[in-house]
Records
---
Amino acid sequence: MTASILSQKVINLNESASLKAAALAQKLISEGRRIINFSIGEPDFNTPDAPSLEAIKAITMGKTHYSNPQGNLDLRESICEKLQRDNALDYGTDEIIVGSGGKHIIYHAFLATINPDDEVIVPSPYWVSYPDIAALCGGKPIIVQPNSESLKLEAEELEKNISAKTKWVVLNSPSNPTGAVYTEDELQAIAEVLKKQPHVLILSDEIYEKFVYPPAKHVSLVNVAPDLKERTLIVNGASKGYAMTGWRIGFGAGSTTLVAAIKKLISQTTTCPSSISQEAAKVAFSETQPSIMMRDSFQGRRDQAVTILSTSELLGDIRKPEGAFYLFLNLEKIVGKQTASGKVLNMDDDVVEFLLEEANVSTVSGSAYGFSPCLRISFACSIEQITQGCQAIVDALASLKD
Ligand SMILES: Cc1ncc(COP(=O)(O)O)c(C=O)c1O
């Protein structure tokens, strides 16, 4: 069958670049190559025991049926308690929608609200899926450049890009791919701009909330600007903070109008999130210990990666991420150099290919995140792999010539 059967929307859609890079690394590993996979976007820890045991209990007790499309009431109660305990935010169960992952919530939120040509402001460097999901829902992604030092969105730049057509502004803290964490003051400045634009909705993606390295602190936009609560959809979930990526549970906290609209869409698309995963997530959201253990471990791995990579003159001053589990390296001193075999590395994609070939390390290029020339390295793998992989990168870079 030919591609002519496909819709223009799907033809225009890009496959997730990070999932594609991770899949290529897995393929090479299965073919016998000893690749260190720095392209993964998930914790390497197993799901903690408590949610796993709750899922087994759910299966044996026959909790295996369709649920409320909005998510079970007791799970939504557990989410409200989590928001109160961890974030000092008050939400009622009718302001919570549970979906099959945070990505599913973002997709349905955009689908529920975007009319043709509505604009979605996406600060760069961005998580690969925001522009594609916005376009898939008929919107127009407007990419806004960050502060060149911090790689964060600045209030003035945001203000310049808001128009009468702006439907959503996307905020992501801690950020994938940079690991940047917005401070209270930075969020306050952004909030002041948003308060003047009552037609704009705000997506606050806080999925990496549990991985913030002291002294940095996670703050939600709704904490600093409670008057924006009605227009903000907080997106979070079980995937990252609770090492439950495969369970597919995410949630949105927002206005009852938006929650009801997403519920209606879910009732016609996926019907409801997995009933077994919902039982597990209910327990996960009541726990704090496992994420603290993971956070401390990631912090050690981050420090190890930065220490080794900093020994390469070509990587310059490495920005230490304050959150998430990614390093976003600047490749300005590397593009234009030649490999030993004479190939010129013209762009970050070439560097990714070079590192895969010469260092046996899989990474993702900045171009996937709308910001070049850069490289994303995930440090969600063992300290041994980090040590070996980062040293291999340093050694491969040392072989480059002017
Ligand atoms: C910034 C960001 N938001 C949302 C998600 C979606 O996570 P999930 O759908 O697994 O809950 C991801 C996953 O990589 C992410 O990096």
Note: The domain at 3-34+290-397 is CATH 3.90.1150.10 (Aspartate Aminotransferase, domain 1).
---
Amino acid sequence: MQEALFYSKSTNEQLKCELCPWNCILTDGQTGICKVRTNHGGTLITGVYNKVAALGSDPIEKKPLYHFHPRKNILSIGEVGCNLQCSFCQNHRISQCKASEFSGFHNISAKKIVTEAQKTWNNIGIAYTYNEPFTFYEFLLDTAELAHSKGLKNVVVSNGYINKEPLQKLLPFIDAFNIDLKAFSNDFYKKYTKGKLQPVLDTLKQIAKSPAHLEITTLVIPGLNDNNSEFENMINWIATELGESVPLHLSRYYPQYKLNAPATPIETLTELYDLAKQKLQHVYLGNVSDQKRSTTYCANCNAPLISRNHYNTEIAALDIEGNCKNCGSPAAVII
Ligand code: SF4
């Protein structure tokens, strides 16, 4: 049984978990909203240490990360649990499952995962993904620290729902993040994720200030988060608070889990793409076949730098330092 980090005890034997913005108060035997952290006789324990539910090697582009070691693979792991409850979750079988009720775990140590990553072909490191990685914080931290000591990279794909202090402790070991910004309205967050918008914005700002590479994904859901003026507010906020070179992925929604609205029309995606391109240098469409809007262009001369056709990636015009071969400008791509 592994003791969790970031909690405090109160006098009446309740515990306060301080890992994420819920700050759950837990009586003995009670498990938090994330479904994995439990008050066990006055000690907060994590039910998912050394327990992996999904493991595989993916192209880095699948995370999605388009500006971080293109054409490389990354060993990807996930567990169970999530601290949000999105009604459109694509991985609800593992994200919305209690650790105590899941039967498909593989017991794997951090050392074994790191060894596996070192053996995997064309692999740059480890991605913590599939379910919400912050809910397996302790295992993530230990694995990431060990991976770094062996020269591997660490990538976190997350909903961004974490408190400031635990994120700060993790930052030195994480090389790249893809954070979901699910909408730019607190009402949307409340209704469709059960969370709040502000903690996600705080996380994005904290990461943007750190040396870690940051990309953002927004799943565009028709009628729920595709309002043009709300979207423009989001783009303005990203450009102002995070920087106009932060890549934004606009993903096409398909009916999932509890949401059965029809798939996002292609016209909606292209319209939002055009709006985003007015303020941001690197915008991409995901979950659709659109080579033009999956290509990385030089922000200075507009030369196509990296072309993508699904997961076939071609580096067309980047030098080994990540500069545009056409005009020599830095391309905001880590090679
Ligand atoms: S990590 Fe889990 S137990 Fe801790 S505050 Fe968040 S939801 Fe609650």
Note: Residues 228-242 form the longest helix (15 residues).
